[in-house]
Amino acid sequence: MARTLSSLSWPLHRLLKTSSRFMSMSTESGQVGFIGLGNMGAAMATNLLKARGTAIVHDVNQIASQALVPKGAIVAASPGDVARLASYAIITMLPSPSIVEEVYLGESGVLQTARKGTIFIDSSTIDPGTAQRLAAESKARGCQFVDAPVSGGVVGACNATLTFMAGGDAAVVKMAEHILLQMGTHVLHCGDSGAGQVAKLCNNLILGITMGAVCEAMHLGTRLGVDPKILAQVINSSSGRSWSSDTSNPCPQVDMPGVPSTRNYEGGFACDLMLKDLRLAQHAADSCLLSLPLATSAQMLYTELSKRGLGRKDFSGIYLLPAPPP
Predict the structure, then answer these.
(1) DSSP secondary structure letters along 104-116
(2) pLDDT digits (tens, 9 = 90+) for 290-312
(3) Is 200 an active-site residue?
(4) Which of 17, 50, 174, 200 is flagged as catalytic?
């Protein structure tokens, strides 16, 4: 059974006290909710709060939710409670298709309590089919749905420089655009429902493969005696340049400020999440009878890192896999 307002993490009088803050917003914006406060979601929600002053948030990790209270967040006890209060739009940023479906369709899901006209924006990376089903379920309940996965990583989420790849009705994407631009710099409409997810899977397919290539090149060059900083400078000034080489180089000796390789591969985009995305891409390719041999090879690398108990490390941690020199 869906919870009542009295079950919200904040006392009701605190919610009423903040209503004046909501009233100060334009009628176009209204109340906005955010569900899923992991590495990416917490940074995105923080920028949303900076832009709007307040938002209704929820995460299964109460520590993550409470950390945003000093920044203006109102913590709700369940996804359904977020939907009770966030009448204009709700953003979700979750780790897997099954969790996304539970948050939307579960007993305490947002679609159980959402008001008609609410815009749902799912920035998780999931399979296109799930996005299309959720769009249909939302429409059946008088709501709107946009699949809007992101590119830019944790750094982009922190700096509000994300790119959103949006799938859905063009008019609804336009309605959601001003909210997305509070967390990013580009909103690209990719087509109908599910198209944003297709574009994201293609992007992460390239990312997962190129990170493997950069790791191999850095190992080869340094093993043969080239200084890693010089090697990185050469690559980043040449045709081998990529995000994996010039923005998040996997070699610790390059000593690129602020990237996971300089902090034992902590933080960033987890290996297990990259592995999930590559599997989703493979599943999509299977559905249209397309072979992805490079993706298959990349999956083997991330699977090996995960088997070693390092699945929560940044995906650039595959740099740790090659055997040390004799």
Answers:
(1) HHSTT-HHHHPPT
(2) 999 999 999 999 999 999 999 99
(3) yes
(4) 200
